[in-house]
Structures are given as C-alpha cells and as structure tokens.
Amino acid sequence: MEIKDIATMLEERKKAYDELQKTVTELAAAKADGKAVGDLTAKVETLSKACDQFDEIKTAVEELQKKANRPQTDGEIKAAADLGE
After folding, report:
1. Which of these, 9, 78, 4, 3, lies nearest to 50 by C-alpha position?
2. What is the DSSP string of 4-58?
3. CA–CA separation, 74 and 16 (whole Å)
4. What's the burial of 65, exposed, middle or buried (CB within 10 Å: 0-12/13-18/19+)?
5. Where are the chain's structural domains?
6. More confident site: 22 or 84
7. Partner of 1 for a Cys bridge, out of 7, 48, 60, 65, CB 3.0 to 4.6 A?
8. Cα distance between residue 69 and residue 75, in whole Å
9. What is the model's pLDDT at position 5?
10. 67 in helix, strand or coil?
11. 43-55 burial, b if ≥16 CB within 10 A, otherwise e?
C-alpha cells in the first residue's frame, strides 16, 4: 500500500464520517418529531461500519513506518546513491 492509497482512504473515511454526523443529526430530529427512523438507522449503521475501516488505514501506516525505520541494505544504499548521481 502506498501513501496515495492511504490518502485516498483517509479522504473516503472523512466523507463517510461527515455523512455519519449529518445522518445522526437527522435521526435525532426525526425521533424528536415522531417520524419513522428505520431508513436513517440503517444508514447510520452502514456509515458507522465504513468509519470503522480506520483500522485498515492504521495498519497501512504502521507498515509504512516499519519500512521507513528499518536499516537499508547495501543494495538499497547503492541504488539510492546511483539515483543521486
């Protein structure tokens, strides 16, 4: 997984979270007005699951951190030097 993939996932999660907040507000208003809330409740559950995918993002970031923190091999050092020339 690359950084651009993580950025895309974070963007999607933010959209889902924003929509979740909006839907929760709509749900509370509908309950207060005594309206049917079945559809809104289902939507909240779906969006909540989408937001839970944050664990996948966290794992990807941790993998990138491990790769960034590990010592370079001689081949990687040579390749980096060759690119710098």
Report:
1. 9
2. HHHHHHHHHHHHHHHHHHHHHHHHHHHHHHT---HHHHHHHHHHHHHHTTHHHHH
3. 44
4. exposed
5. 3-84
6. 22
7. 60
8. 17
9. 79
10. helix
11. bbeebeebeeeee
Closest CA relative to residue 7, chosen from 56, 49, 57, 43: 57
Candidates 57, 42, 78; CA nearest to 5 is: 57
What's the average model confidence in pLDDT over 2-28?
A: 86
In this structure, the chain runs to a length of: 85
Measured CA angle at 59 (ends 73, 13), to 5 deg? 135
